[in-house]
């Protein structure tokens, strides 16, 4: 469990500041269009510096990498610089530990294909029932190669994964545990460092789906001591691109999935068949530009990217906790509403992704009514279909989900609750 007695990490740095929403919202051009976006767990809006870098790349250096002429050298420098910046943001020790790809789903599939040739029949992999299918399906597929797959199911009353159950499932044949940092249905933050310590004590590896965590908190793969960690940038204010982090010693040992002339030491290329998307990778530098811009707007003194980002994400956590409380208080006040997840709004416990069902109401009937108010929410299983099935929610259309990020406002929450009120 999380140690709630300690001083919250998210409130150490800038507890006397609040997030400047006017500045933040000015950095997202799409927010000027009149819509309120509450489907951010499906994909956030894109920050202006990302758009600027993407446009600049395509206009001035849209050539093949690896040549000696100047535009090619510029293109290579931009792709490398952005990759190094991503490594800095996740706190990887080496830039070669980050693998770029089209999506978290694709990157985890590639990792599983490599591990399929690394694991032996009888080895065990543990998955959860509350993750996105991207971090379940590839591991279940290893059963075709003789790997035993076990499921770590969450407690249906607390909506939490209990580490005691993981202890029970693990044996001396367990090789990998795949777990979400945050469920994209529940919004609850799982104690990844505690889980990683437990997994490592048994000699296994941990693979974390960070997609629903990364938009809200600064990722630190070394502090978490994870073996693999993946998330998608289009959920983190960037383009439709993703990253997989893997500890260098593991990435060297696992067979790659690229052309034969990329040997086992070719990192990260051996896990990037066909290479990366140049323009999207280059544009990732705009995420760091955006975070440093927010830091500067709040008079943060640190100029180094991770130090500045740490303080920015502290501001983000504070603001998102306020958003969470306002919506959760409203939902909890409605007798017909059942929130699927933890009702505590504290930043240590959850991110502002809330899912709920309404007694006697099909979830699919709610979003079309909210659409009329130019507010975007959504319903369904959100690729966590195993969880929706296990909770018995499939027949009612899954859950209604409201997923907020730091550019959302309390006024937008008020608009949503006013639109929801007559429906529930």
Structure write-up:
The structure is a single chain. The chain is of the alpha/beta class. It is built from 15 helices and 13 strands. The chain has helices at 21-26, 48-60, 70-90, 104-116, 137-140, 163-169, 192-201, 221-224, 248-253, 278-283, 285-297, 305-332, 366-371, 385-390, 410-420, and strands at residues 36-37, 98-101, 124-128, 148-152, 174-180, 205-209, 228-232, 242-246, 337-339, 353-358, 375-376, 378-380, 399-403. Helix 12 runs parallel beside helix 15. It is globular and about 65 Å long. The model is unreliable at 1-14 (pLDDT under 50).
Residues in β-strands, percent: 5-15%
What is the architecture of the largest domain at the second tier of CATH?
A: 3-Layer(aba) Sandwich
Helix content: 25-40%
What structural class should be given to the helix and strand makeup?
A: alpha/beta
Largest sheet: 7 strands, mixed
Shape: globular
Number of DSSP E strands: 13
Number of structural units classed as domains: 2
Radius of gyration equals 21 Å
Strand order of the largest sheet: 2-8-7-6-5-3-4
Question: Which fold name corresponds to the CATH topology of the largest domain?
Answer: Aspartate Aminotransferase, domain 2
* Annotation field: number of helices: 15
Oligomer: single chain
Q: Helix and strand string, N-terminal first? A: HEHHEHEHEHEHEHEEHHHHEEHEEHEH
CATH superfamily of the largest domain: Type I PLP-dependent aspartate aminotransferase-like (Major domain)
| CA(first)-CA(last) distance | 33 Å
**Nearest-integer average pLDDT:** 95
- CATH class membership of the largest domain: Alpha Beta
Unreliable residue runs: 1-14
